[in-house]
Amino acid sequence: MERQFPYPLVLDGEYSHHLSRWLWLLKWLLVIPHVIVLFFLWIAFLVLSVVAFFTILVTGRYPRGIFDFNVGVLRWSWRVGYYSYSALGTDRYPPFSLADDPNYPARLTVEHPQSLSRGLVLVKWWLLALPHYLIIGVFTGAAFAGYSQVRDNNAWAYGSGLIGLLVCIAGIVLLFAGLYPRGLFDIIMGLNRWVFRVSAYAALMTDQYPPLRLDMGGNDVSKSADAPIGLGPDPLPAS
Question: Mapped to the 3 state alphabet, what secondary structure does 102-143 carry?
Answer without folding.
Answer: CCCCEEEEECCCCCCCCCHHHCHHHHHCHHHHHHHHHHHCHH
